[in-house]
Prior knowledge:
With 130 residues, this protein is α+β, with helices and mostly antiparallel strands. It has one helix at 7-22, and strands at 62-69, 75-84, 93-95, 98-101, 106-109, 113-117, 123-127. The chain folds into 2 domains: 1-35, no CATH class; 52-127, no CATH class. A hairpin with a 4-residue loop joins strand 4 and strand 5 (106-109).
Amino acid sequence: MEEGWGAAEIAEAFHRAHQRRYGFHQEDVEVELVNLRLRSVRPSEARFPAWRKSRGAGRVPGKTKVLFGVAGGDLEEVVCPVVERESMGIGDRVVGPCLVCEEDSTVVVPPGWRGRVDGWGSLVLERVKS
């Protein structure tokens, strides 16, 4: 273990945090580590391959009927375009309602939402109306 992260240091940090939050601490009580979470972010210079840059809107091979829930618990049937995800490139956009289909998943873009392919090739959805 790196210096500063031994059991004694973790227990001391816990007691300090407990004192700040609750106004007291009990150093004579053993500290038990129940959950541990780690978040790591690593910057990268990698970019999505150039061949995935936008070639225009994604290919729409057809349409299908989809049921969407609306206020009051009712369902509404909507005819939606089906967009092939592999035909989309960086900068391409879709407007809901639509389905974006891949070999192993389907993204539902509900009414009032839109999506765009970001610089990493991820499909980012954004609500455009409540």
